[in-house]
Amino acid sequence: MLAAVFRKIGSTLELEEVKEPTGGIILKVLATGLCHGDLHIISGDWKYDIKIETPRILGHEIVGEVVNDTNTLKSGEKVLVYNSIGCGSCKYCRAGKYQYCERVKVIGLHMDGGFAEYVKIPSEEILLKIDGDPIEIAPLADAGITAYNSVKGISSDDNVLIIGTGAVALLGLQILKSRGVNVTVVGRNHNRLNKAKELGADDVISINGRSTIASVIRGYTFNYIIDYVGSNDTLLDSIWLLDREGELRIVGEFGGTLNIPEQLLVLRGIKVRGILYGSLNDLINVYKLYVEGKIKTIVQKYRLDDINKAIADLAEGRIVGRAVIVPP
Ligand SMILES: [Zn+2]
Ligand SMILES: [Zn+2]
């Protein structure tokens, strides 16, 4: 089968004929989203945190078709793949938070993923039967679930600032708007800011040059700030825009450092937390929102042969929404 293989940090993926996977549950890949995480792996940003053995087929946002009947699924059925497999017995796994399991294995990181014609899935418990366009649905497997987790507990009483306009941010925005939350979006990419406006953002603010977020949005305060970037620029002073008992949620992984005067935290009762992926239940819930028409994914389709073009387009900010890779 054709696969895009990651062999070396800093290199493009190699398009190769490799052996089809055997054993376990085999899916014929219908669509796989390209995530910023894939770029972080390829460029070596995560080499100290996540050990990736090479050669490896990346791709952790997968919709596939079941090849052979399983206990609960029939051949030909379409499924969305929850990508993290935990040990099943630690306190995080028992709470369904497999992403925090010390022994977690992620499809497309620790085992071969979806940038290929077929993928092997170790357990059917992580498969959600779906109906609809695989290309539109694939981004829910990571961007969607993360977006859902990132806006939990936020209600129509709250005023929210979203930092960033990538695929996760645009989904988070839509979930908040479906609850009637007032949302301001700040970003640098004009095409994506326009898309945010189109998707219902109450206000979009463009930031350019060396201006900082707090200097551009002076005079407003928010109950929640959700940073879908996580760079030094976005973390620099945005926390000053939080209201009393406000919360900063950091989702993006651009490696910035957060420096906060402790008195700001204490006097305003501010909370700071990180958001990593979500639970299998979150995936079920975000798919439900999609089926109900409350959210939609924005996708740009690429053939597997063109995956390196998709990677370059994503790295250079030319993608609005998600690049989704489809096998030939
Ligand atoms: Zn990802
Ligand atoms: Zn565990």
UniProtKB/TrEMBL annotation:
Q: Which residues form the Alcohol dehydrogenase-like N-terminal domain?
A: 23-127
In its keyword annotation, does this UniProt entry include Oxidoreductase?
Answer: yes
Q: What positions does the domain Alcohol dehydrogenase-like C-terminal occupy?
A: 167-289
Q: Which keywords, in A-to-Z order, does the entry hold? A: Carbohydrate metabolism, NADP, Oxidoreductase
Which GO molecular function entries does the Swiss-Prot or TrEMBL record give? adenyl nucleotide binding; anion binding; oxidoreductase activity
What PANTHER family does UniProt report for this protein, alphabetically? D-ARABINOSE 1-DEHYDROGENASE (NADP(+)), L-THREONINE 3-DEHYDROGENASE
- Name of the protein in its database record: Alcohol dehydrogenase catalytic domain-containing protein
